[in-house]
Amino acid sequence: MKLKTFQRGIHPAYHKELSNNSAVERAAIPKTVVIPLRQHIGAPCEPLVKRSDIVEEGQKIGDVQSFVTAPVHSSVAGKVKSVDMLPFPGGGKVQAVVIETAEDYVPKDWEAEGPIVDVDALTPEEIRYTVRSAGIIGMGGAAFPTSVKISPPKGAVVDTLLINGCECEPYLSSDHRQMVENADKLVLGIKALMQAVGAKNPLIGIEDNKMDAVKAVREAAKRLLPELKIVELETKYPQGAEKMLIKAALDRTVPIGKLPFEVGVVVNNVGTAVSIYEALAFKKPLIERIVTVSGNGIKTPKNLMVRIGTTFEALIEECGGLKTDHKEMVVINGGPMMGITQPRLDVPAVKGTSGITCLTADTVKPADYFGCIRCASCVDACPMRLMPLKLGDMGRLSITEEFNNFNGMSCMECGCCSFVCPSKRPLVQWIRLAKIKLRDEERAKHA
Amino acid sequence: MAEEVKNDGFLADKDGAGLIVSSSPHLFNTESIPKIMHTVVMALIPAMIAAIYYFRLDAVVLLVTCIVTSLITEFIFQKARKQPVTVYDGSAIITGILLALMLPPSFPIYGAIIGSVFAIGVGKQIFGGLGYNIFNPALLGRAFLQATYPVMITTWHEPATKGVDVVSAATPLALMKFEGISTGWGSLLIGNTSGSMGETCAIAILIGGLYLFYKGYIDLRMPLGYLGSIAVFGLLFWLGGDGKYPDPVFHILAGGAMLGAWFMITDMVTSPVTPKGQWIFVIVAGFLVVAIRNLGGLPEGVMYSILLMNAAVPLINRWTRPKVFGEQPKKNGKEKG
Hints:
Strand content of chain B: under 5%
Oligomer: heterodimer
Low-confidence stretches of chain B: 1-13, 332-337
CATH superfamily of the domain at 115-282 in chain A: NADH-ubiquinone oxidoreductase 51kDa subunit
Distance between the termini of chain B: 44 Å
Radius of gyration of chain A: 21 Å
Strand content of chain A: 15-25%
Number of strands of chain B: 2
Low-confidence stretches of chain A: none
Mean pLDDT of chain A: 91
Shape of chain A: globular
Largest sheet of chain B: 2 strands, antiparallel
Structural class of chain A: alpha/beta
CATH class of the domain at 115-282 in chain A: Alpha Beta
Number of helices of chain A: 14
Strand order of the largest sheet of chain A: 1-14-13-17-15-16
Number of domains of chain B: 1
Distance between the termini of chain A: 56 Å
């Protein structure tokens, strides 16, 4: 039987075998944690603590009055060392709370007494409220506040809840382990999400390179949520992109510039669903997550359960360290296709850090680039059906008006075009330049 | 704007930990321009062997002349334009080989040199080098020679396999056009006829073309669409022509149709980028071949059919832009969910 998928896209080497069979290990509790006050898309939080304050594990340390935002919590118990502008793995600097872990700190067991709340009895408003106060955001990497994502606008009818178990980025396996090890919590989280958005039709899309995850979820669903439909998908990148997943699993097309609500769908990542269940049942805020540390540049690839705010340096140490000198390495927040390379390792793992990919320079550094030979490989690969060869040149030459006419703003920067280009042209980079330029121009027009 | 070849994606953060920083994606497949070009050169080997088998030393001399001249011209132009020298990428070799294969075996060496200089210099480098040329360089070189040496380029002789003496002889297409004599399919297939060195043996070209398909560098829609279009329009003329026009199989096997279909129509630089555009390109080009051969003053139309369509590529690309994912129909109707 031919498996479902979307059109175009690419088949990179996934290298999942480096880490996908390693059970999640708890990372050591760090001596200090760095907790940025903006780990999400939306309004940055304001600090609720100051220097020398004593904080508990799970205590809210940042929040703001705004719809699109998510509060942040302390991931350890200890003393606030400083509140300062510090490097952020998503780029630039962000105000962050630095907490020194107390010497007598013993991690709290949130689940010691079993579920303390009857999740089935909660109303949609109660679920949304808890999701917001637990600081839950999209954990697949997009980092969009989940409370917003599960608040359908007036008039929108959501019939389907689609759970994203694709994890299409090479190297990453945190979602994979989540599905294998926490299938029960995942399915209960899906049930709660259905209550929240009023969807009758729950689906989970999983790529066929994770058959053990399919089996685990199917087994859990049989007991806890028989109507959950498990859709096996052909392994292809970028299937985890929301619009591509909706196309692959449901054959629905989200119009340009619109949200999945438009076609009656809400999409959430598997890690997000698990965190939602933990927040609802155990009142546990989002203070830890699974981070895959992998790549050909790390000694022992692992899946680690990490306290938010643990530095990359500490996690890399925990995995045996880097194989070669810094000058020969890239360290990426996320996977190699869309992740961001880090100039320094004192940045913290945040809620959106699904993985840390360490690659040696010889595998990533492309040769110098050639002229475009119009081979059309990029046109055949672009899942958004754009013409990257043209968009790239328009970006390179700053022709923003034409870039807009060619729907350049629809580009999601998945990187398929740069991946396939035989001339090794940095197409995505040029497209990004054009997008920035175009936004600046728009802003100037309205100013 | 000059093509900057130094990759500007890598920066070192001055207060960072010395790690390499670059823009995503950080993974690439193993394709490269030299790899593609060298595969095409490999695919041309059967046609070169056939040329040398039928036309012996003449073929060797012309091939060597065209390849060497093409490489030297590319080198000189890139030096003069202060561009990085990319002679090693294999594209100039292809132009040289294709031009040689399109020449009559008795063509003089100085003519081959002039044609190669024109093909690379005017056909490719003046436009900005690889990727920026509008016309297929080899075909442009050949068109230039057709204009400057109209007699020499239409003087043919029988292949060496037919006898020791070199006898001048008309090509199957010219025989058909001017004397109404058809050549058997068998001779056309194995190439035991007079004609341009590399075009006579249809089988050798087909082997090379299928190798390119096997390697994944060409889509069958281009060559088969072109040959199919030639066959369909050839058939229409044949059926309606009362014996005046050749049959469709003859059209496909004779002259440059095979070489054009597998190695020139498929030139990535000078063909459309969208599947729909490629269909338009090959169907119109196929029609032009039959129209020129049957109705025009020339016996052969492959070269002009492709050059004319090359000129139309930017327009075709514009017309056939793919519909962006999620793009709404122009009218207010909601797209099907």
